[in-house]
Amino acid sequence: MLEMLHRYGPDLLTGFGLTLLTWVLGTAGGLVLGFLLEMARRFGPRFWVGWPIRAYVEFIRGTPFLVQLFVLYYGGPLIGLRLDALPAGVLGLSLYGAAYFTEILRAGFDAVPKGQIEAARAIGLPGRTIVWRIMLPVMMVSALPALVNFAIILTKETVILSMITVPEIMFQTQTMMSETFEFVLPILILALFFWGFVEVISRFGRRLERRFTHYLLEES
């Protein structure tokens, strides 16, 4: 076992680093795109913006991530979009995550009490101030648990990137199994890695939630 870890340890560490990179970039990209889509859908022209965003969300949520990834990576060249495996994987995660983040943010905005918005309008606050000082903080407190939960889901979706040869930790684990014909130890290492990864994100999410709640109480 020690000999196997010594031999494949550097590759597993490289895979771990790449998994972390794709997750960070994919989650950040999905969150930013999801926020922009929700702001456009909520405050933009409903006909020209609302229905295309809804169609995008329903398509992404209605098809498997693996299929979307194959279409992007193998079908992209048909429309002139030629991406290496890693950029295609990050872009695929971002597009996939954005659809779900958009819906989470929509629910968060809908959870803002109408009375607070009406009170802000009654004292003459401009619309932009209402959005940034009232709606966004309350929305974040409501949506944060769901945002963290889906970020955790995205950690496990990174293993699918191995299907387009992104050498993340699943790819390295499969290589280790195919060369050594040892299955229990590699799978155990993979499980422990994701368990630890998820625990770190969960703890960070709970701390962030407490800080947002504390900030909201101070502001009120």
Order of helices and strands: HHHHHHHH
SS field, number of helical segments = 8
Report how far the terminal alpha carbons are from each other. 57 Å
Mean pLDDT: 90
Low-confidence segments, given as residue ranges, are none
Radius of gyration: 21 Å
- Structural class call reads mainly alpha
| Major sheet size, sense and barrel closure | none
Question: Can you tell me the overall shape?
Answer: flat
Q: What percent strand?
A: under 5%
The number of E-state strands comes to 0
Notes on the structure:
The chain has 220 residues and is mainly alpha-helical. The chain is built from 8 helices and no strands. The chain has helices spanning 2-43, 46-62, 65-75, 85-110, 114-122, 127-157, 169-180, 184-219. Helix 1 runs antiparallel to helix 2 (46-62), helix 2 crosses helix 4 and helix 4 packs across helix 6. It is flat and about 70 Å long. The termini are far apart.
Secondary structure layout:
Blueprint: H1 2-43, H2 46-62, H3 65-75, H4 85-110, H5 114-122, H6 127-157, H7 169-180, H8 184-219
Keywords: Amino-acid transport, Cell membrane, Membrane, Transmembrane, Transmembrane helix, Transport
Family: Belongs to the binding-protein-dependent transport system permease family. HisMQ subfamily.
Subcellular location: Cell inner membrane; Cell membrane
What are the main properties of this structure?
single chain, 220 residues, mainly alpha, 84% helix, flat, amino-acid transport, transmembrane helix, AA_ABC_transptr_permease_3TM, cell membrane, MetI-like
